[in-house]
């Protein structure tokens, strides 16, 4: 039987659909018996859904440099 550590290591593969039928069955069997791993997988699924919906993206390099310069009081600051 899988251990909780095995579940955490394979959780992303499960959510990505990359696990074999045998792997999925082993995980599902463990989760049927383990509330902690059910909670962990539920949280991971929700987190991935939220990150996927995010409308924010990283600023480009020039914008990031300008922002940092303003924050540290560089010569670009108004
Ligand atoms: Zn577990």
Radius of gyration from CA coordinates: 21 Å
Whole-number tally of structural domains: 1
Could you say which structural class the secondary elements and strand pairing correspond to? mainly alpha
Q: Give the strand content.
A: under 5%
Beta strands, count: 0
Q: Characterize the largest beta sheet: strand count, sense, and whether it forms a barrel.
A: none
Distance between the termini: 63 Å
Which residues sit in consecutive blocks of at least 5 with pLDDT less than 50? none
Order of helices and strands: HHHH
Average pLDDT: 86
**How helix-rich are the residues, as a percent range?**
over 70%
Bound molecules: zinc ion
Overall form: elongated
User: What count of helical segments does DSSP give?
Assistant: 4
Describe this structure in words.
Helices cover 72% and strands 0% of the residues. It is elongated. The relative contact order is 0.11. The protein has one domain (4-71). The chain has 78 residues and is mostly helical. The chain has helices at residues 4-16, 21-33, 35-53, 61-71. Bound molecules: zinc ion. Residues 4, 7, 30, 34, 36-37 line the site of zinc ion.
């Amino acid at each position: 039987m899988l251990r909780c550590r095995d579940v955490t290591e394979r959780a992303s593969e499960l959510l990505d659909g990359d696990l074999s039928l045998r792997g999925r069955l082993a995980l599902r069997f463990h989760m049927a018996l383990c509330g902690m791993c059910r909670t962990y997988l539920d949280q991971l699924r929700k987190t991935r859904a939220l990150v996927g919906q995010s409308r924010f993206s990283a600023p480009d390099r020039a914008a990031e440099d300008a922002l940092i310069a303003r924050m540290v009081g560089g010569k670009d600051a108004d």
